[in-house]
């Protein structure tokens, strides 16, 4: 992988800003077992920076794997929390309304 200029001319220069896609390609090569030192020399990026990208990628993967998209229990819990909130508001409104009501003796 050769470094490219930001304006994609044929004159190779060091890239000052790396796109997420290019970083991912480098990290994937490292994950597949390519030597960090060799990879660093080839792409012109310090090994510590590639290792940082690698660590952030692993963290991101871990966070994605923790997600529970479409989990029926989570949906049920969310619906229950919503209903509890609604009932709590209703109770507060009824308390305020009953506090304003004056009971006069003998008016039943």
Q: Which percent range fits the helix content? A: 55-70%
What oligomeric state is this? single chain
The assigned structural class equals: mainly alpha
Taken together, the total number of domains comes to: 2
- For the record, what CATH class of the largest domain applies? Mainly Alpha
Report the span from N to C terminus: 90 Å
Strand content: under 5%
Number of helices: 4
DSSP strand count: 0
- Kindly report the CATH topology of the largest domain: Arc Repressor Mutant, subunit A
CATH level-two architecture of the largest domain: Orthogonal Bundle
Shape, please? rod-shaped
* Largest sheet descriptor: none
Poorly predicted ranges:
1-12
Fourth-level CATH superfamily of the largest domain: Winged helix-like DNA-binding domain superfamily/Winged helix DNA-binding domain
Instruction: Give me the Rg, rounded.
Output: 30 Å
The run of helices and strands is HHHH
- Mean pLDDT metric: 82
Description:
This protein has helices spanning 20-31, 36-43, 47-66, 72-100. With 108 residues, it is mainly alpha-helical. The longest helix has 29 residues, at 72-100. Mean pLDDT is 82; it is low at 1-12.
């Amino acid at each position: 992988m050769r470094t490219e200029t930001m304006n994609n001319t044929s004159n190779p220069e060091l890239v000052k800003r790396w796109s997420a896609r290019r970083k991912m390609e480098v990290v994937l090569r490292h994950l597949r077992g390519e030597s960090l030192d060799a990879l660093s020399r080839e792409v012109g990026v310090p090994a510590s920076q590639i290792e940082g990208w690698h660590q952030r990628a692993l963290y991101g993967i871990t966070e994605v794997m923790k997600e529970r998209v479409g989990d029926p229990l989570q949906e049920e819990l969310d619906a229950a929390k919503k209903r509890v909130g609604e009932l709590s508001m209703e109770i507060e409104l009824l308390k305020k309304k009953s506090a304003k009501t004056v009971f006069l003796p003998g008016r039943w």
